[in-house]
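Supplementary Methods, section 5.1.

A reviewer requested that the exact input to the structure prediction be made available. We therefore reproduce it here, unchanged from the version used in the analyses.
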Amino acid sequence: MAGPLVAAAVVLDGGIIPDLNDSKTLSLAARERILGEVLENAAAVSVVALPAWWIDDNGVGAANRRALSRAISLLEPHYGCALADGNLKLGSAVRCMPRADSKSAAVAAGSVVAKVLRDYAMGALSETHAGYGFERNRGYGTREHLAALRELGPCRVHRLSYAGVREGVGEPA
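The structure derived from this sequence is encoded token-by-token as follows.
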């Protein structure tokens, strides 16, 4: 409901990273530990973030495609083939596969990088947009966040095109 959409692409250097998996299956502590190991074992890393206004103007699907396509294209000189999670249409040079983040170490590494950096961004945004609990809810639609939206209305980092944000909460703060 709030914050940037973050996509990352990683080219691993062949080292084994214990416990590397889809970021959604890992605890916060595990993700942060694994991030360090990914950065130590990566031949190249690329991160692209798109702000809430871009998502509102173009849609979350287009944002996903744009961010991931860009992140992958920035690494093109460093890989032999490209694999991405999901069913996105990213062009003939990129193979997309559902649940690739649980099947490919490189895709899982990208998942971890993107999740940890987005969480850090939401923590930083909590300092300038107090009251929403971004440091805890990371911009997701938790009860705390929804209550804050009702009380404070949305701020500039909210995705105003999302139904839960725009329903009766007024103008951006």
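The mean pLDDT is 92. These observations are discussed further in the main text.
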